[in-house]
Design brief:
Layout: E1 5-8, H1 18-33, E2 37-40, H2 52-65, E3 71-72, H3 88-100, E4 104-107, H4 111-123, H5 139-147, E5 153-156, E6 163-168, E7 172-177, E8 185-187, H6 195-205, E9 210-214, H7 220-231, E10 237-241, E11 244-245, H8 263-269, H9 273-281, H10 296-302, E12 313-314, H11 317-330, H12 333-346, H13 352-357, H14 359-369, H15 378-382, H16 395-401, H17 406-417, H18 425-439, H19 444-455, H20 463-470, H21 472-486
Parallel strand pairs: 1-2, 2-3, 9-10, 11-12
Antiparallel strand pairs: 4-5, 5-8, 6-7
Length: about 475
């Protein structure tokens, strides 16, 4: 049985995108589930679009997500090099072979001539494709073009009577007619191999057994099959994953601001990598049963490519928030403290020195909100009432504060709060019980006004601990201000 070998082959044209991360992740799971190899290759021959940080982002954030590859950049083995820019001579050798076998030829048409041909076809209601004008040039004609200073591209001859079929792992059997696309370029006139030529040679030489990639590559597959056939190579098994769509069922666009799309941004916001791994794994793939939270090891064990969805994958922000919250709640407090503290400093809530000097207080504050947190940066918004002088009330909160028993509760609270020696959660609990006994006010009518006056919110974590962290002076000042507001 052929060993499973899959690859993730990004172009270094930008940071790691959620769609590319999903491609890498499914390849990783497929390889690991089948005891195979996961290869990382960089397709960097589009020199104009390459960005210096592009490759670095791919490597850094694949590592952050836990997508450990077995072979590739930095893990070179027998099938390298793993950057296409370092494999130019390899592609040229196979192009020369195809020319020698008359399966490819030199085309000297200029960009202007090709554009004119294209425009004429469109004007005549024909689908634009290369006409084959230079498919049978004589040696003399070639020499004449070269004397003009023209540099040829190399085109592969596409059999016009062939139907190209393949059994897609996701979509089932697909077929394309050779007559529907013309002879296409395999080596550009600058000597650089095109994607559909280079990828075939790389996959063959690197013994790639399965190619799992995005739906946008379906139209590339028949062209690649032309190359496989011309070179006498056995093609791999192809599988094309469906698109990721937004809440409007539109294809995910990098301009869509309703969705965070780059892995780097999730890291910067304080998402947990294993939570994002979990979420991405469910974008277009589903396990059996209702469970949605799995470790990486569990995903490897249960991954079945037959359960890849044929329908577009819906990017559900609410689901991502829920999954990350599940992971945050399950973490040791120490990890969530380390995740959260930098955001207080970054947002100017406190200086690094203040955080260090009051570390125990910050740790207790974070522990109070850990069950509510969906990502690290959210801690600043959740705890904002601990860092402002005054609290403000909305209409609903004012309505509760104005109920007839509130003033009695506040007056009794203020008379007793100064007597509390240590303002701890336990002592605050006893204080509130004493107020209940004195005033006869209990339940929501007792707790809610104190919560609103002290924290500025009707909802929040455990009240007594919240008051302890605010401190008796601040709590007393806020209750007094609230009392004056309703009098």
């Amino acid at each position: 049985m052929t060993k499973v070998r899959v690859r993730y082959a990004p172009s270094p044209t930008g940071n790691l995108h959620i769609g590319n991360a999903r491609t890498a992740l499914f390849n990783y799971l497929f390889a690991k589930h089948n005891g195979g190899d996961f290869v990382l290759r960089i397709e960097d021959t589009d020199f104009k679009r390459n960005k210096e940080e592009g490759e670095r982002s791919q490597l850094k954030y694949m590592n952050w997500l836990g997508l450990d590859y077995d072979e590739g950049i930095g893990k070179e083995k027998e099938f390298g090099p793993y950057r296409q820019s370092e494999r130019i001579d390899i592609y040229q050798k196979y192009a020369d072979q195809l020319i020698a076998e008359d399966k490819a030829y030199k085309c000297y048409m200029t960009a202007e001539e090709l554009e004119a041909e294209r425009e004429e076809q469109i004007a005549n209601g024909l689908p634009p494709r290369y006409s084959g004008k230079h498919a049978h040039l004589t040696k003399e004609e070639q020499e004449a073009f070269e004397k003009e200073g023209r540099k040829p591209a190399i085109r592969i001859r596409v059999p016009q009577d062939r139907t190209y079929k393949f059994d897609d792992m996701v979509k089932g059997e697909l077929s394309f007619e050779g007559k529907d696309f013309g002879d296409f370029v395999i080596i550009k006139n600058d000597g650089v191999a095109t994607y559909n030529f280079a990828v075939v040679i790389d996959d063959y030489l690197m013994k790639i057994s399965h190619v799992l990639r995005g739906d946008d590559h379906v139209s590339n597959t028949p062209k690649q099959l032309v190359v496989y056939e011309a070179l006498g190579f056995e093609p791999p098994r192809f599988g094309h994953m469906t698109l990721i769509v937004n809440e409007n069922k539109k294809k995910l666009s990098k301009r869509d601001e309703s969705i965070i799309q780059f892995i780097e941004q999730y890291d910067e916001l304080g998402y947990l990598p294993e939570a994002l791994f979990n979420f991405i794994a469910l974008l277009g793939w589903s396990p059996e049963g209702e469970q949605e939270i799995f470790s990486k090891e569990e995903f490897v064990k249960i991954f079945d490519e037959k359960r890849l969805s044929k329908s577009p994958a819906f990017f559900d922000n609410n689901k991502l928030t829920w999954i990350n919250n599940q992971y945050i709640k399950a973490q040791p407090l120490e990890r969530i403290v380390d995740l959260s503290l930098p955001f207080f400093i970054k947002e100017g809530v406190a200086t690094a020195e203040e955080v260090e000097a009051n570390k125990a207080w910050f740790e207790k504050l974070i522990s109070l909100y850990q069950p509510q947190m969906s990502y690290g940066a959210e801690i600043v918004e959740l705890t904002k009432q601990f860092f402002v002088e005054d609290v403000k009330f909305d209409e609903e909160e004012l309505e509760i504060l104005k109920q007839e028993t509130t003033a009695t509760v506040f007056e009794d609270f203020l008379s007793k709060v100064t007597e509390v020696e240590e303002f701890t959660a336990d002592n605050i609990k006893a204080l509130i019980k004493a107020i209940q006994k004195d005033t006869g006010v209990k339940g929501k009518n007792l707790f809610m006004p104190i919560r609103i006056a002290s924290t500025g919110s009707m909802h929040g974590p455990e009240l007594n601990t919240s008051l302890e962290l605010l401190g008796n002076e601040r709590v007393a000042a806020r209750v007094k201000a609230a009392l004056e507001t309703i009098k």
